Amino acid sequence: MASARPQLPPTLALPAAARNLVLRCRAVSTMDAASASSPGAEKKTTTVFVAGSTGRTGKRVVEKLLAKGFGVVAGTTDIGRARGSLPQNPNLQLVRADVTEGADKLVEVVRGVDAVVCATGFRRSFDPFAPWKVDNFGTVNLVEACRKAGVTRFVLVSSILVNGAAMGQLLNPAYIVLNLLGLTLVAKLQAENHIRKSGINYTIVRPGGLTDQPSTGNIVMEPEDTFYSGSISRDQVAEVAVGALLSTESSYGVVEIVARADAPNRPVEDMFAAIKQK
């Protein structure tokens, strides 16, 4: 599904088919020009589908993508809520998308996009299977929809400690608490494993504990299974997720991120380039 196109000047009086072709060509040229206006433009995709676009992290991903000149297709289960919470922008298109409803229903909403960012997360409820429906099966559904639609770039926002058992963190309070909520971390890990085997060019971003406040520190990025504690602002998580789309070094990689007051302020692309994958 194509993204909402920028406003274009009226065309000359042409036959309908020719006029539509001119409009499509101008839209593509306008989007390319917007992308070229920022550093690293040669690495940018044109249109990105964001799952979980009205969530506290997903909303920030949408905002940062638009600021970088991307076209965005924002997937949401509530179009009305999305209209009220997301920016009004000619490069933003809202579509109804529920990752729990299966891959076949998601194929059409991701068809034609260049990349997908998955920033979904289950909402607390009385349903003990909610984490698996969203963080496992929902992510798997989205990956399979991408495979069917020919989308080959996927960025997943996951969590540190998903592999806590293998890291010797079974007694870590954070690992225990998060898994009390329907084995959330186990569900996320299974989804990660599916992505790794999918053949899609993936980047998995595992943030520490998420905060809504502006960060008081700079991003620290390490390979998978490094951090067992730490926090980071959602703004910084969104920055890294978008940065993954701009960095060739992020391909087929898993990174973990937290924020620390004593860390140097480094460009995201430089941090990806410094990571040695396990």
From TrEMBL:
One of its Pfam families is NAD_binding_10
Every copy of the NAD(P)-binding domain together lies at 52-245
Question: What is this protein called in UniProt?
Answer: NAD(P)-binding domain-containing protein
Query: What species is given as this protein's source?
Result: Urochloa decumbens
